[in-house]
Amino acid sequence: MSLTAEQLYELLPAIYRIRDLEEGEPLKALVAVIAGQAAVMEADIARLYENWFIETCDEWVVPYIGDLLEVRGLHPLGPDAPFSQRAMVANTLRYRRRKGTATVLEQLAHDTTGWKARAVEFFELLETTQHDNHVRLDNVRTPDLRLTNQLELIDTPFNVAAHTADVRSIKPGRGRYNIPNIGLFIWRLQSYFVSRSSPRAEASPADGRYTFSPLRQDQPLFNRPQTETEITHLAEEIHVPGLLRRRPLYDELETRRQALVDGVAPVAGYFGSQPVLQVFVRDNVGDPVVEIAPEAILICNLSDPPVPVPDVWLRPPASKLYQPSAGGPKQSRTIKVAADPVLGRLAFPKGVTPAEVRVSYAYGFSGDLGGGPYNRRQSVTEILTRKVTWQVGVSKEVTPAPGEIFDKVADAVAEWNLQPAGTVGVIAIMDSATYEENLTGANRIKIPEGSQLLIVAAGWPEVPVPGGLPGQKERIPGQLEPDERRPHILGNVAASGTAAATSQTPGTLGLNGLLIEGMLTIEGALNGNLGSLNVTHCTLVPDKGGVSVESKNNQLKLTVTRSICGPIVLSKSVPFLRVEDSIVDGAGAEAISASSTPVEIEKVTAFGPTHALKVEAGNSIFTGNLTVVRRQTGCVRFSYLPDGSKTPRRFRCQPDLALEDAKPADKSTIKARLVPSFTSELYGNYVYAQLSRTCAVEITAGADDGSEMGAFSFLRQPQRVSNLETSLNEYLRFGLEAGIIVVT
Q1: With 80 as the cut, is the pLDDT of residue 310 above it?
Q2: Distance between CA 627 and CA 624 in Å, rounded?
Q3: Cβ of 308: how many Cβ atoms within 10 Å?
Q4: Per-residue pLDDT at 468 exceeds 60
Q5: With CB atoms 3.0 to 4.6 Å apart as the test, which of 18, 54, 304, 624 could cross-link to 609 if both were Cys?
Q6: Handedness of CA 102, 107, 110, 112 (dihedral sign)
Q7: CA distances (Å), origin 623, targets 492, 506, 635, 652, 699
Q8: pTM over 0.90
Q9: Tens digit of each residue's pLDDT (9 = 90 or more) over 223-244
């Protein structure tokens, strides 16, 4: 504000201020209120100016600016939309200047949907009899069998091989190679980069073979998309969040080693300023952790050989010879490790087993759900409703400091257990390492009466000390950076409340951003009680554990949000459960067992039967029967329920809705068609719980807002595709047809 409350008060005549002081300064209090409201009005006026521009305006203003430009396809995606449509409005004039070109269609697809895209003009890939005066050297009928990289790309978005004509329509996604056809390939999966994670040793003790996944799973690696700087540039393989292939990575590293032998600068690509994978090692205990240079990495096929070998996997050579281009003797280049991006495996040369290994890589998944390195700042703010009075960090990379930084989670929990009742505390796990420890028994988490503890994957920044010496820094409780980290806890976790069962302020425990390979158990300590448990943006590996709540927790409110969770099993005493935007996987057993607990379920994919005392459910998919004890209350809305489910009243659920007006002879066919189908139901697969492309539209667009049912409803995928389809015709040349082709 231009004038503060004190300055406004000083403008009053002195006689009024003297009299006001005699009366207890009510006038001064009134001026302070006026000044506060004036500051609000002044800020609003400043914000109105910001709202004139698409780059700085509030999100609600975007459609209004778009309306001034007659932008079509700006259908609302909701307040929690996964991306902004600001770019579509900002680029509208650029679209119109280049209307009809493939680059504009590609940029339009990205700005409209938020997904990376590539536009392909299929007429360029047609087999044709060429005229001698117009020879197209890049369009040959027979592929060159020596170009193995191009052969791998046949029938992909980056295909360069010629095809015979396909006269089917491209709009339903059937035909492709025809003169009027343009394909818009889109990548719906996102690439999540994990920095300096702990790979999992394939054997115990370690023998030099590892999986990039800390869960000892074969997990294909994904590309880290590089940014296109010009709208006139067509996307290449390096610009999209696709699966990595062995061939281009192998060729690039071979070229890099050859360039070093020749004494020239290597060409940047997958291993440039934003490498797709990195390997760090500590050769011996006490040595520093150092990065293995890209030229010392060999890209290999590390799949199990058809004929068993003593080392189980084939091991890389310790070195390779390269012939300098200018001639002379061959030079040896050291090979320190082999990586397989297709299987997500890592192997050191025979006999080499470092003391410690770290890897940085990217994995693919549908969205921000489960334990991941994405930004979780808003969810942390919602959990920490009180001022933090105690905070410690856990890290294997930051030097331990007594009472502040620990190298084990159990030590941080032990320090927390010494804090008095009423403490608001945070344990920040500051890296993506694996912590192999059980937080059970004497190491369990204790939550006293009135206390609140948050265990979160987050950085804890150092800030300069006010008035301190130059370079002097400190860490302040409450300051967190909840992103770019995904710690892995290998072991079981147990917690208990110590408040009396009659307490009005039992304690609270929150977990955020963790990958837990074990069971989370809320113990029922003698006369103990936990008030609430919030599991947010976490993964409790389905086939390794889930959530189990024992008796004596008769005030517990359990909330699972944006998480992947194994079976949830509640004792009779638990009074409340809410699951939203999550996947609950029973791994062959019950997904939710809460026959004595009222349950709220919203936008959930439940693999397995669900039992509840009462239920309020919406926009969810139940692959197993939903059985409710008290069916006279509650409601199930816009959800899929299998035959045999016993529920309260239903509203627009499937297959009930489709069967209402169906003929008796058609009912069995409708039921068979309306069974949810998933690309994969196996946890660890990058398309886990994703609805397949053949799934019925009544499910893929069956939620109350027109999005899909289930855990990924928040992605608003049907609306994003609809926005693109609405916008396409404006920028297509006359006579052309565009089809949207989903890659992932």
Answers
A1: no
A2: 9
A3: 8
A4: yes
A5: 624
A6: negative
A7: 28, 36, 18, 17, 12
A8: no
A9: 999 888 777 788 889 999 999 9
